[in-house]
Amino acid sequence: MASKRLGRTQDPTILVLTSLSGGPKHGYAVIKDIESMCGVSFGPGTLYGVLTRLEQEGMVEPLPTEGTRRPYRITATGASVLRERLGVTLAVADVAFRRLGQLGAS
């Protein structure tokens, strides 16, 4: 499979923000959502490292603990950053797809 040769190219920050854009989730739910979204598997260390950084940067915020689980939600700042980053990604993808199409036409 070609994607295995590229290694891990997905940005964990974007994946976590994308997961939380669907509504508040606790850590395990974020991990499972990302796995179902794109097949990427995060360990707790990676996830909580990203969540800690995003919280410090004001892009996510913790909600009251539910039993032993602490849910997080994306903030307005996080949603704005996600929109901006996805816009850039879409623009790059559009160029790449057009160029790939041109390769096939030659």
Can you lay out the helices and strands and say which pair or pack?
Blueprint: H1 2-6, H2 12-20, E1 25-26, H3 27-38, H4 44-56, E2 60-62, E3 71-74, H5 76-105
Helix pairs in contact: 2-3
CATH superfamily: Winged helix-like DNA-binding domain superfamily/Winged helix DNA-binding domain
Tell me the CATH topology.
Arc Repressor Mutant, subunit A
Count of strand segments = 3
Task: Count the domains.
Answer: 1
- The percent range for strand residues is 5-15%
Cα distance spanning the termini: 25 Å
| Low-pLDDT runs | none
CATH architecture: Orthogonal Bundle
* Mean pLDDT across all amino acids: 89
What coarse outline follows from CA principal-axis ratios? elongated
Task: Sum this structure up briefly.
The protein has helices at 2-6, 12-20, 27-38, 44-56, 76-105; strands at 25-26, 60-62, 71-74.
Q: What would your notes on this structure say?
A:
- 65% of the residues lie in helices and 8% in strands.
- The chain is mainly alpha-helical and 106 residues long.
- Strands 1-3-2 form a 3-stranded antiparallel beta sheet.
- It is elongated and about 55 Å long.
- The model has no long low-confidence stretch (mean pLDDT 89).
Main attributes of the structure:
106 residues, mainly alpha, Arc Repressor Mutant, subunit A, three-stranded antiparallel β-sheet, 8% strand
